[in-house]
Structure formats: C-alpha cells, structure tokens
Predict the structure of 7013_t:CDS:1.
Amino acid sequence: MLQQPDLRAYLRSLQELETQNKLDWYWSDFTILKSTDQATFNDCVRFWKKVLIETSNHGLLGENVICLETSEHLEENFQNKGYSPLSLPCVIQEMYMTNELIPVDEFISTQNRSWTGWIISKYILHPIYWGIQKLISSRNYYSSKWVKMDTLKEAACRVIQHQEKHGINGVTDNLFTLSSFKAEFAAIAMPKVTLSDFDLKILITYLESERKILITDSLHKEVNRKENDMIIKFRARNVNVYTKFEITSIDRGIIYIKETCNKLHQQIHDIEERIKEISTKIRNHIIQKQSVMAKHRLRQKMHLEKVLSKRVGSLETVEGILLKIQGAATDAEQEIDEAMKLGNESLLDTTIVQDDELEKELED
C-alpha cells in the first residue's frame, strides 16, 4: 500500500515546486524540448530523477526499495490537481541510457560476470549492439521492474560494512541461510526502510557477481525452495586473494549447527510463553474454585517445565559446539574439522523436537 500522505508531504517540501510555472513544466510533455531547449529538458529530467530515486528509497512507491516498478500506477502516484506527469517514460529512458536504471531481467543476465566486466563488455567491446538493445528494451516501460544501481551499490556497501564490523568469528559468522541473511540485513541495508524479499534477491545477486559472497544455488530458478536450504557465504577479510573461495562440507555442517541453535531458541521462547499462559489459567481456576481444572493445568505446566529444561540443556550443548568451532578457527583447518566431528557426535545425543511435535506438546 502506497503512503500517499507522505508522498504528498515530500512533494510539498521541494523548492523546485514553489512556483506554478515550474510545476507546469515538470508535469508537461517536455520530451520535445530535447532537441529545441536542451537546458530546460535537462532540468526537467534532473528533477524527476531526484523525485523517483528519493521517493522510492524512502519506501513511498511500494514495498521495493532497490527496484523501481514502472506500472500504470506510477504516474497516478504523482497526480497533481488531477493531472499525471506526462514524461516519466522519457525520464526512465534517460536513466536507462546512463545506467542509473537497469531492467531486472537484463540485470540478472549479468550475474555470471562482475558489474565492471559487464560495463566493459557493453561499452567497449560491443557498443553498437548495446545501442540497439537500448532502443529495443525501452519499449517495455509499463511492464518492467528496474534496478536502481546507485541504491543497490549503497545497500551492498552498507551490508559489507555491517558484516565486517559484526562478523567477528569468520568461520561461523560469515555463513547465512537466506532466512538468516534476511533477518540480519533487510533492515540495515538502507536507512529507515526494510528491503523486500525481491530487493534482497537482487542484492544477493549483485554481491555474488562482485565476488563478495558465494551462494549454493541460483535465486532466480523456478523451484520450490525453503529459505533455509540456501547457504550464503561472505568472503572473509584479509584473506589471500589466491585462497580458494568455496562452500565446504565444514560450512554446511556449521550452518546445520547454527540452524539447530536458532530452532532451539525459538522452541524455548514458545514453551516459556505457553507456561506463562498456563500459569494465568491456573490462577483463574483457583480464583473460581475450579480445583480439578487447576490441577490439570498444573500437570501441563510441570510437563512443559521438564520439556523446557531439556531444551535449555540441548541449547547449551549446541552453543558449546559453536564455541569449540570458533575457538579452533584461529588454528589449523584440521582442528576445525576435529571440532566439527566432536560437534556432530554431540548433536546425535541432543534431542531436537520437530516443530509439529512441539506444537502438539504445547496444545496438550
């Protein structure tokens, strides 16, 4: 849902719209001025570039922040006194020509090479072909999502800086699933907004193309995938450039241990909440002198407290495994492998209840 009041407030704050003359120019069909009045044309394009980028970055044009969607509703969002801006397709085309916007499909097709390599290929090796493609692609204005490259690069920079600051234990902290990546970075990649799932896929694609991360599978294949099935690995700081960058069996084991730890934290939280609910019911039964129900709820509470104690013990075991792996991280890879083997043996003795089993226990 678009935030129309905030969008209107933003437009009212712009100095460029303080005079009716300027407003009329910006909402008019100024495309004809490109060949007759270049200065005014450039001013109009510059104004709409600023407006589109800033309103989108602030989350005022929909849930996507890194991507701009040019649907039929885009002009409607900027209606003024019943009139929609007439030259937004021209502005989008200008931004496309300068690589400020890239169609999503075209962007995804570059994921197997770095962004710099793509620029070199298109502008130096194949400039004529690139010019033709520009003209062809510009026809898809009303059915396109566009990657805002400056916004994407800013988000990527923030993610890398955050990871370098907080990824203290590289062996474990540089590993994420899609779900944990979202939890860690969606709210910090851009100021005061949260990235959408689609934005995150574009961000991950860019980070991979720039060799900042590795992932175990393409984000854009049409397959049924759970968010925890994908592994995302950040390149560690101060690592020799000739060191092989790969996702190893050790990485997969660490992800399994981290996910087990996360699941236990969630289970403990759910059990504690259920115990609180039952405690309230016990007090109410006592007040209403319903002794049979009070005893029944008390047995439920005692059972869940035993389950909780087991979960806490399991969590301590799993977190101990992570600490051993982190402790071995500064030593030889063999020591990390030994810590992993010890961890796997410990996990075999650790009871992890599946979500559906726990839900049944909480309902009983």
The chain has a mean pLDDT of 82. The chain is about 65% helix and 5% strand. Strands lie at 67-70, 101-103, 144-148, 175-177, 213-215, 231-234. The radius of gyration is 27 Å.
